[in-house]
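REQUEST FORM: STRUCTURE PREDICTION
Request ID: SP-0412
Submitted by: Lab K.M.
Chain count: 1
Length (residues): 695
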Amino acid sequence: MKKQTFLYALLFGAALSVAASAQRIATPFNDGWRFRRAIDSTERNVTVPHTWNAEDMQVRAGDFYAGEGIYTKSFTLPEAMREGKRVFLRFEGVGQVAEVSVNGQFAGRHEGGYSAFAFDITSLLHKDRSEANTVVVKADNAARKDVVPVNHNLFGVYGGIYRPVWLVATDSVSIATTDHASHGVYIMQRNVTDTAAEVRVRVLLDNATLQPADLTLVNTIYDREGHTVASETKPLRLSPQGEREYASNFRLANPHLWQGREDPYLYRVETLVQRNGQTVDSIVNPLGLRHVELRAGDGCYLNGRKYPMYGVCRHQDRWGLGSALTNREHDEDLALIMEVGATTVRLAHYQQSDYFYSRCDSLGLLVWAEIPFVNQVTTFEAGNAKSQLAELILQSFNHPSIYIWGLHNEVYKPHNYTAALTAELHRLAKRLDPDRYTVAVNGYGHMEHPVNLNADVQGMNRYFGWYEGRIGDMQGWVDGLSEKYPETVLMLSEYGAEANTAHQTELIGETIDFQSQFYPETYATKTHEAHWGIISRSPYIVASYLWNMFDFAVPMWDRGGVPARNMKGLVTFDRKLKKDVFYWYKANWSQEPVLYLTQRRLTERERGITSVTVYCNTGEPAVRLNGKRLALKPGTTAVHFVADSVRLRRGKNVVTATAKDGAGNVLTDRIEWHYAGDTEGKVREYEMKKEHGGF
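STATUS: Completed
RESULT:
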């Protein structure tokens, strides 16, 4: 929790000591909660983050509690928050509709399970501030047709106060706290080059004194070492009637640019509000100076340099925890994303933790952020979709890692309504943030679909060999689109196949029954080997995002031998096992030396004559079977090597691989296979299907 507290202090200028009581104070509000489901009478003690679906939504298809949960907490207002302060409750995320009351009085309602919200509770607190105050939060994750997502079909909306809560106190004159729960400071950058950059810092101020306030607004840009780069001091007279916006404009010479993973350089922008020479409020925000350009048929350019878009998608939940994560889990996910060599991440299909965005800023990952307008259209969700988009943009405005706003994913009929709403979302995004791209995603493969082309970028989800066609069909699809629509900016927003690591077989083809209970890991590996080979040679695909970095819960599904699970991840749901495809992408994307033999879990071999596959990004390796060196042929990329028609002996077989990295260090890998003879009937059936085009 210390890291979370520090982050909040950084972004919100929180002074966490009584000595600094003239400024805002933010204290964690996560302990001491009592919880019960609305259908239960017994309360229990819980600590936030908390979800009541950490188990049932992950293990039983269609059998989980979606409804109301009630949280209660009593507290005494800290001494430093009493006199002359406005007091707010700020929730980072409650799934998915929240109603908050303080001392029996209504404080506010929020609809949307993934964005932050803040309520001014000053007038609801007891006049005698030494008395105990009681907060009640009613959280409801039942599907509603007017709140996106409108169902639990593609992922579960976990119920509960599943992100941290803060008790915040500000001076009566402060930077606005309740503008969609944003930071109240919006940093815009224009004309960014390595010789100059224009920065505009917009500040929203709020005066609750009932009288005009004579103030001084100071905006200062500091470099990483803490040296002042630019500063402006602006005297002003703040009206008590409504919030007012003020801006400072800077032109920085020879800026140090934010260059993705190579050099994620961050400045910081400090905003001070002073009255009578004393600072009454302050906020610090990150500033990463960068220019992102997407060129049709060419790719992504970061600060004028071609930037490889090695993309993964990420769902935020994990086994045994649901969505109630701490920073430790976020950091673990990011470590795996960085290890595989990703340069960009699609945070699907909803706004994720602000901490996660902040870490992407400092790690240099380009981020696709989106709202949960996904899977189904009801025609009642327009207002809520717009509200969640405004919250996403304003709360996340200052993260340099974010380069694009996602408007929808796989929503269709009625086409006219969906197309019109997407266009409205696009216009809203451009009004709030004219400098970032927008994207909408279709699950069909043809550009002329009626809901397409209402955003800056067209995303398409393609699962060749899984939900449609054969694995190799991706090449024809890419070629056809590039020929017909060469000027369209296209991203491959999802692709992949499911892999249950307990399911292993050599007998795979070019298609699979995705509704079956058998999802062999070997099939997913073959799919990704083919698909990344095509993607890596297709400049028409401006960026691609494999689905998914991690297995995740799908509470309405029962497929592949594991109920309530989508197993398209490179890493298992508990983050304990990296599948073969993890090392496939690490070998292709990462700068770290990789030597990896595949099919290491397929220990019981079904065929006497088989193949050996190895990934190596330091040149051609030496591969041996039972001591005899094998002849290798190239695979689908430069790191892919295959030895075909390899004959196993009965019993134990040892496969080894060796290579040298750039420093001359020897890399080794070793696996053992066992062969007891061709499986009667199974191999013959496979050969007959292959011969007659059954795969």
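NOTES: The longest helix spans residues 415-432.
Reviewed by: T.R.
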